[in-house]
Write a sequence for this structure.
């Protein structure tokens, strides 16, 4: 059975970085979204297991996505990957129900470690 | 081998190298500092930098270094902001007037496995740069001054004097202060030039300007308005005060004589006085009023002080 | 195509590198100043040398400008200009943790600029496996005339300015500053090489 993954970031490079960092042992079906609105369209219509979510994005930002997921009771594992790494922002993200906060640029070993912690490996 | 080489070179550098631990104790320094601080190696190693250099501003220094440690980035302190941090002697004690070495200091973090463990301070001698820059600034200052001064009489030239008037005018308007203007013209100067030549006329201008200047207060602004016309701005001065000043100038000049090539020249001045008026919307109005009064003084027979008409009305009403 | 036209992918990559650098620099700054730094996405604009003064003119009347040179491996080098509006800088000493009478206005603004420039460029450099050195920061002037003059003197030396507009908002304090990175043509080519290498890796 494959894991459904959605990568949401306005930067093409950042999406690729996350995509390339996914371990081979994780059998995945990956979709991409360029902003929060695109991501929510997918999340509302399909069953997704893991969302890799950037914070600073046009249209709807990462905090907006987390809030919508909470309001609409959509349950999945959200890993926030952000350039804004201040402790206060990390706290806000975790309060909104994210599983983990990873700093950009995403590191392969740290991503793997988090996937393992949350039972995806 | 390489270590010996590095120490050898660091001791020949014309830059000070000072290495501190995170508690501000001196780990090492190079010969440049040993020589210029005139202290022995064993007097400083292991000691607090504040003990060895008590002249350092301690709080400032600690905050500066904490930014280097925390942000893991270098920091600077240039001579233009602080002439020197460390009281060191320099190599041009005779030809410059600065007692201590002017310095550019760089604070470098030295990281070991991602953590800052040492701070390296580089101290450059910029006494030369400082000396020449100071001289240049002085020259520029003198140049700026000569741009404002009338070469012959040493009074402000017309352009600068008018800039001052514009400033004083708007300041007086803003704060509702008084402001008076005195314009004066040497009587029959053309005749005087014909009799004594232009050099005689110049001597009269120089001496008159000096006499007037001696009568003024610190805040008064004295300028040469035209050929033989002078003007004085009197800030925070009312009509009575301005008239007094004008009258004193007139009497002083009428009483004194100018010596020129063994001959003595008598001169008189005609003076117009105006004060800032609610109707004056621009400083040029003030000049015009004073100028009109000056022409009236001329028409009434010279060697006298006249008040501007508007000003006069007001005086009559008050009286 | 001239030397500094970036493709969409190159532009995206540069923006991401700058966002990450900004994010980490703000984090360091927030810890150091013991406050929260509100972060806006920095806007990046490429400006040809002859147009830079015009773009600055629109924004600025009276300003304080601090300049600091930077240079790293692989021929990546340039000059960073930090441009402030004067009203922003009244309480900088307070923000920096100094006593108000401990340092002059010039020193405050130079100190802050140096921190902003070096923290940002250090992270930027580390992402591309590089390391920066810096010249001493200098206060150019408090008026635009002198800044234009400075830029004109420099203009033979660089061709493209990367205008990175950064707005820092700090709890209890607010100040905006523009960071403008002036980069000579050869260094732009070198940066593009590095960007292409990163893009190839992914």
């Amino acid at each position: 059975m494959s894991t459904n993954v959605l990568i949401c970031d306005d930067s093409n490079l950042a999406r690729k970085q996350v995509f390339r960092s996914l371990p081979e042992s994780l059998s995945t079906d990956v979709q991409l979204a360029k902003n929060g609105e695109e991501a929510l369209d997918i999340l509302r219509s399909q069953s997704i297991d893991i969302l890799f979510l950037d914070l600073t994005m046009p249209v709807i930002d990462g905090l907006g996505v987390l809030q919508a997921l909470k309001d609409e009771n959509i349950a999945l594992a959200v890993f926030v990957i952000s350039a804004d790494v201040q402790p206060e922002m990390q706290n806000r993200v975790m309060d909104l129900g994210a599983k983990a906060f990873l700093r950009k640029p995403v590191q392969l070993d740290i991503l793997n470690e988090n996937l393992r912690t949350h039972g995806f490996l | 081998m390489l270590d010996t080489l590095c120490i050898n070179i660091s001791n020949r550098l014309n830059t000070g190298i000072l290495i501190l631990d995170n508690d501000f104790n001196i780990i090492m320094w190079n010969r440049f500092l040993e020589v210029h601080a005139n202290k022995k190696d064993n007097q400083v190693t292991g000691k607090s930098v504040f003990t060895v250099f008590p002249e350092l501003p301690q709080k400032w220094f600690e905050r500066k270094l904490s930014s280097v440690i925390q942000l893991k980035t270098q920091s600077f302190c240039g001579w233009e902001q602080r002439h020197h941090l460390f009281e060191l002697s320099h190599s041009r004690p005779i030809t410059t007037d600065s007692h201590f070495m002017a310095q550019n200091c760089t604070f470098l973090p030295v990281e070991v496995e991602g953590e800052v463990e040492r701070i390296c301070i580089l101290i450059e001698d910029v006494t030369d740069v400082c000396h020449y820059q100071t001289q240049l600034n002085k020259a520029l200052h003198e140049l700026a001054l000569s741009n404002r001064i009338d070469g012959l009489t040493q009074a402000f030239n017309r352009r600068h004097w008018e800039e001052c008037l514009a400033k004083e005018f708007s300041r007086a308007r803003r704060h509702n202060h008084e402001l008076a203007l005195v314009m004066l013209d040497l009587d029959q100067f053309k005749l005087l030039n014909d009799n004594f030549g232009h050099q005689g006329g110049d001597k009269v201008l120089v001496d008159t300007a000096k006499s007037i200047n001696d009568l003024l207060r610190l805040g008064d602004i004295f300028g040469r308005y035209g050929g033989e016309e002078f003007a004085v701005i009197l800030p925070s001065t009312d009509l009575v005060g301005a008239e007094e000043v004008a009258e004193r100038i007139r009497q002083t000049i009428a009483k004194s004589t100018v010596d020129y090539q063994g001959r003595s020249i008598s001169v008189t001045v005609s003076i117009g006085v105006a004060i800032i008026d609610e109707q004056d919307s621009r400083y040029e109005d003030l000049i015009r009023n004073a100028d009109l009064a000056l022409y009236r003084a001329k028409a009434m027979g010279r060697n006298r002080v006249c008040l501007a008409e508007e000003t006069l009305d007001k005086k009559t009403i008050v009286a | 195509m001239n030397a500094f036209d970036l493709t969409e992918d190159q532009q995206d990559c540069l923006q991401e590198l700058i966002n990450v650098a900004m994010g980490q620099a703000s984090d360091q700054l927030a810890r150091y100043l013991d406050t929260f730094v509100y972060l806006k996405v920095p806007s990046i604009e490429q400006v040809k040398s002859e147009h830079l003064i015009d773009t600055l003119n629109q924004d600025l009347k009276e300003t304080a400008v601090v300049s600091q040179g930077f240079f790293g491996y692989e021929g990546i080098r340039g000059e960073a200009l930090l441009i402030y509006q004067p009203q922003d800088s009244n309480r900088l000493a307070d923000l920096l943790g100094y006593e108000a009478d401990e340092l002059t206005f010039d020193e405050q603004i130079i100190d802050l600029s140096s921190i902003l420039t070096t923290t940002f460029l250090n992270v930027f450099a580390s992402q591309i496996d590089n390391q920066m050195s810096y010249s001493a920061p200098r206060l150019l002037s408090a008026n635009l005339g002198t800044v234009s003059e400075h830029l004109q003197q420099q203009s033979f030396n660089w061709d493209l300015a990367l205008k990175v507009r950064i707005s820092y908002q700090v709890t209890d304090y607010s100040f905006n500053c523009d960071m403008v990175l002036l980069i000579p043509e050869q260094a732009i080519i070198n940066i593009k090489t590095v960007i292409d290498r990163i893009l190839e890796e992914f």
Remarks:
- Chain A touches chain C through 17 residues (CB under 8 Å).
- Chain A has five helices and five strands.
